[in-house]
Amino acid sequence: MSESEDTGKSLNFIEEIIETSIAEGNKRVHTRFPPEPNGYLHIGHAKSICLNFGMAAKYGGKCNLRFDDTNPVKEDVEYVDSIKEDIEWLGFKWDSEHYASDYFEQLYLWAEELIRKGKAYVDDQTQEQIRAGRGTVTAPGTESPWRNRSVEENLDLFRRMREGEFADGEKVLRAKIDMAHPNMLLRDPIMYRIVHTSHHRTGDKWCIYPMYDYAHGQSDSIEKITHSICTLEFDVHRPLYDWFINELNIFPSHQYEFARLNLTHTVMSKRKLLQLVTEGHVMGWDDPRMPTICGLRRRGYTPESIRAFADKVGVAKRDNIIDLGLLEFCVREDLNKRAERRMAVLDPVKVVITNYPEGKVEELSCVNNPEDETCGRRAVPFSREIYIERDDFMENPPKKYFRLSPGGEVRLRYSYLIKCNEVIKDETGKIVELRCTYDDMSLGGGSSDGRRVKGVIHWVSAPHAIEAEVRLFDRLFTIEDTAAMDPDKSFIDYMNPDSLKVTTAFVEPALGEAALGDKFQFERIGYFCVDRDSTDAKKVFNRTVTLKDSWAKAQK
User: Fold this and answer.
1) Neighbours of 139 (CB within 10 A)
2) Digit-coded pLDDT (tens) for 222-236
3) E strand segments, 390-499
4) pTM of the entire structure?
């Protein structure tokens, strides 16, 4: 692998191809991102977006957005709009916007040209007959009884297909290549099928629609795409891509394949994601547990973190599985720099500081973000009654336990040292209140006699705390490699029943002003953002990621 002269960073194989082409005098770089508008984009698409737009930007080229809208049954303008929103949110802007439907007339004329050359024919067989006639990997296919129709008959039938004379599935147009070809995709592939369904852009103008393998390469050629970058499963499609371009003698776009993104604990199949939505297993396409870009956005991921993730994953030639922890590492690194700190208690127990004056309230000055001094400071109220996390107290602590315990002392974040003197329980034995005393000389890190403690815990003032809903999200699936799911089971059986936990928390008053999408670090807990379900009366916070970084530790 060679290195870039500008950065010294190793080039991926796509960059090597481009730089070799530039060195040979072919300096124009024109890529495209061609999603089908039949669902919402996911993190795998984000990698492709970063690659296609990134290559164009790096080499001073252009990148088109082209919607592969050749299947009106599954496509909708809702998906078109969401795709554009996701690309822009990721920080990219396409040079021009196109649709495969823009080229329907030209694609049709090229199909007639192939018929006149004896390279395409109308077939009356059913889908089942065509499938059976293709043969197997080890056995050649069987020629259709309609394969040798005359040019005139094929042209007549194809034009009548366009005019709507035939029912869905009654006829198809096939390329005439080789029914014994070792690549089964070249065994007379279907070019057009009849679909009497209104199209989201062309309405009822067409009732025949081109197949992906026929439309894709020609669309690239029309737009003069120099580098058609696809995921690895399309490598077997490349000979067909080239065949159509060569037979039509049009601009020679070329296809290159890279490994698709596979994440642990995640499914990427649009069919499966759609099932999760339609069957109500998740809250929608933008459920924060979903790998969709809109789901990641709602969860609190930043575009910078996703671009960093795509860069770290790199561009490979072989499929592999990426640890979801790497994606979490990237958002953790980004949010550490940009998220302001706040205190929130998710499982509260009340603490009464018995020697603190009743009615007294102090405004403590707290740093908003120690990583960014421009974020300034905020005032946090402190009073006689506070909430702490239930996990920050233990009645019978083990050795080296540095949080609060009976007779033990701990420092409150930004505040005083407190010592637990009494534990109050209800009739069930549950701790409902801790009674403590404070050292009034310990504000600012000191103490009345110079003593120091190791434990520091967070808190919120009980009279000033705001009640909020907090949603704790975890992996959606229990199995790490979702490709290894038992085929005799439904993938739904592998869903994590604890992927969402909802709790009522108490948060510091500054969070009452938080707006939709604002991101924070809840100190000692994790990173959170304001969800769209928030109201003026009650804020809802989504946990983006915990503070614990298992991925980074695993790399050491």
Assistant:
1) 9
2) 999 999 999 999 999
3) 409-412, 417-425, 431-438, 456-457, 460-461, 466-473
4) 0.92
